[in-house]
Amino acid sequence: MKQFLLAFILIIPFVGLAQDEPGEETPKDGWNKAGNIALLFSQAAFNDEWTGGGTSNYAANLTLAYDANYRKGKVAWDNRIMADYGITKTRDQEFTRKTSDRLELNSVIGRQIGDSNWFYSFFGNFRTQFTSGYEYGEDLNGNEIRMETTKFFSPAYLMAGPGFLWKKSDNLKVNISPATAKLIFVDSEFTDVGPDPMAIAAFNEAGGYFGVEANESSRFEFGAALGAYAKFDVMANVSIENILNLYSNYLEDPQNVDIDYTLNLVMAINKWLTANATFQAIYDDNAVAAFQIRETLGIGITYGL
Q1: Domains along the chain?
Q2: 253 conformational bin, left if phi > 0, alpha if psi -120 to 50, beta if neither
Q3: How confident is residue 23, by pLDDT bands cut at 50, 70 and 90?
Q4: pTM of the model
Q5: Is residue 165 within 8 Å of residue 121, measured between CB atoms?
């Protein structure tokens, strides 16, 4: 229930923006494309004689966001790709570690209902990661070791379904799909526990691997999905982007709403330099029965596409 209440609270800012957003002209037919690539980098170094404390380290984060939206008469087709990959390394760690890793593709096609802001719609969403993820520990000699827990396409999520799109502009829209099919794909090496019934039962009772049961490589769900997007300027050269995705599985624990909320704050210094802050919160009880939180802050190079 607390996830449902939090999801409701997160929707409120989008409703407020819908009321405050000034009216816009009817969009012109054709493609409207825009995006940017940003590289954030930080580094600190200390020699052996430095007495103030500290560990040499570096961190880098590369992000891509690109929109390709099409309009022809009453038909609107919105597409967005988001890619995010970051690493960090400190001198006393054996391995470089990821700080972010995400590849997401979104597509919504709709036909306008009369002269309103509502459209009949059909959406698709695909989400995965680029490289393997690890859990870290130490061996008996104190050396750092790691165990692979995820990899490209493991897990991968595919969702699609019909619904209704409310679109006031490319920067303010909400898609509601009450009949959404969801597939979760994983590599079978993470679910292979053999034929032992007790091992299978224990694996499944523990929640499986991202919800996928023992000796399987996919999971099917059917539920309701909501996707909301709002971007606005708070002052000159400062913009805030809000991305919210909610999903409830009708077939199992529908009260446990999956939440994926991202806030991006971009402060343009000049044509090439920006300060970027990102906050992301994810709740998915198939992965972890708790909130996953990610924050990044840095100054980097941005190139508009």
Answers
A1: 2-46+55-304 (2.40.230)
A2: left
A3: very low
A4: 0.89
A5: yes
